[in-house]
Amino acid sequence: MPRKSVTDIQLAIRTVLNDLSPGERLPAERDLARQLGCSRQTLRSCLTLFEKDGEIWRHVGQGTFRGSRPRHLPVRDTLLIEGATSPDVMQARILLEPMVAAEAARLASPEDVALLLEKVEAGRKARDRAACEQADDAFHRALAQISGNPILSGFLNYLSNVRRRVAWQREWDRTYRRIGTNAFQTLHSDQHQTIVDAIIRHDTAAAASSMTEHLNTVRIDMSLTDH
After folding, report:
1. Does residue 47 lie within any of the structural domains?
2. In total, how many domains does the chain have?
3. What is the pLDDT along the chain (227 residues), one digit of tens a residue?
4. Dihedrals φ, ψ of 119, to 5°?
5. CATH number of the domain where residue 53 is located
6. Of 37, 66, 95, which marks where a domain is finished?
7. 130 and 172 in contact (C-beta within 8 Å)?
8. pTM (global) more than 0.90
């Protein structure tokens, strides 16, 4: 099979971009390189050219997005993210997310419940650390979206950005090496299901309590890794 030229790769990337809306994320580099039939090094070189032209923007730990870089995360916010420790993040989540779960229980429609059940099932099917983390993030984001409150969604997006930091990722790597993906496929997903069960009943107190229990499980998993 003839080797593709840089021009061929650029044209292929252009096709991918044309199928995306502004702000939408491109496939992960590994997947996109496989899709285009090139090395990741060649792909990155081509993406750099698109980035210089303002057609894409990249954020370490988040991915590559179509369009020009948005003006968000001012310096102060960036410093907060860099300075946040794993215990800081977990404390913030435990203070915020039970309220988000309670609000979801109050407002959830049958369509919302169906979406949450899909996220739970995706978690049970996750087969590696990256897939587990993606499924977990998707579940918690879906809860925030049900609230219909952009401020709540914004806070959870902010915490999600913190969780993509290298320091947090190292912490998760150590945690998952110890507990394995099986813990996410079973215990963590079971806890997600318990939260959804409370939401189905529109039981706000049970939804908040179940979320607190779930996040405390995560906090304990991470704290044990330090010892």
Report:
1. yes
2. 2
3. 557 788 889 999 999 999 888 888 899 888 999 999 998 888 988 998 898 888 998 876 678 889 887 665 444 455 455 556 778 888 889 999 999 999 999 999 999 999 999 999 999 998 887 788 888 889 998 998 898 888 888 787 777 776 666 556 666 677 767 776 777 778 889 999 999 999 999 999 999 999 999 999 988 887 765 54
4. -65, -40
5. 1.10.10.10
6. 66
7. no
8. no
| 23 in the same domain as 94 | no
Inter-axis angle of helices 40-52 and 6-18, nearest 10: 60
**Strand, coil or helix: 89:** helix
Residue 18 and residue 36: Cα distance in Å, rounded? 15
C-alpha 186 chain-centroid distance:
19
Q: In b/e form, how buried is each residue of 84-100, taking b as 16+ CB within 10 angstroms?
A: bebeebbebbbebbbeb
Q: Is 151 exposed, middle or buried (0-12, 13-18, 19+ CB in 10 A)?
A: exposed
Query: Which range marks the domain in which residue 168 is found?
Result: 75-225
Task: List residues bridging with 59 in a β-sheet.
Answer: 63
Same domain assignment for residues 84 and 57 = no
Side-chain-facing half-sphere of 143: CA atoms under 13 Å: 29
Q: Which residue has the tokens 């060649």?
A: 42
* 118 and 164 part of one domain: yes
Would you tell me the crossing angle of helices 166-183 and 129-147 to the nearest 10 degrees?
A: 100
CA 86 to each of CA 92, 95, 143, 170, 198: distance values in angstroms, whole numbers, following the listed order: 10, 14, 22, 10, 28
